[in-house]
Input
Amino acid sequence: MFFLHSLHQPQTPYPHSHSPNPLTPNRNPNRNGYIKFRTTHRDNLRYLKSLTIIHPNTKPNNLPHPDAVHHILATVTFLKSHSFSDEDIPRLVHHSPKLFSTSFNPTDLSPVFNFLSNDLLATAEESRGLILRCPNLLFTDPNHFLKPTLHFLNEIGIRGLNRPTNRNAHLLNTRVEKLRLRVQFMEEVVGFTHDEAVNACARLPAILGYDLENNLWPKFVYLVKEMERDLEELKKFPQYFGFSLEKRIVPRHLHLKERGVRIPLNRMLMWGDEKFYAKWK
Output
């Protein structure tokens, strides 16, 4: 017998087809902190199946024992105390199944939630949104990785990292060494000064997450060799690195080249397809 922490109503499991978007704010998180009713082992198994923690087709002899169920439910309870809802759990199960193993202690997550609240100054809902966008944040050591990364990002002028966006979530989970390599690339390869490199990364933080060999380097080579653009244009418009080489940069450059037209990078890339191709027929 296990006391559930206001977790579920066994007779009405949540149908996934009607679940809300897991990345939208949860308006009614469970924060009551009290026991509502007693449930049976069978009820608990049914509930864990509804959350996809246990596969619905698991054979009876492979189902977890009551002690294991107790442990898994304690993890679910811990997450719900941090604003996660039943609709959020399947996403975490898919990306981080070890969260719901009997060898995992949910209290190990406390330092991460403390970092998000105390260092990042994120609300409970913002923390939830960041984790849903990058569940690996839950397993990243705050002292050795998250705090140094946050310090570096703040130092180069990137603000608003508490907002639950994909960019912010993945930047926070990026090691400082990798971030520094992107700044060095802008200095040593592109030719920016340190301040110019930092400013470019602050204007387009996505640069800090781009792959050097397969993204930044090919775009830079194409800019210099094929487009014959100079460094000053790139300083004015570092957002160039944010556009797809194959889908945007190359086709538009070739389209303009065929017509003998040369326009600033921002006009070449910022305009939508309809406006661009209507202007330069």
User: Anything to note?
Assistant: The first helix runs from residue 41 to 50. The mean pLDDT is 87. The longest strand covers residues 2-4.
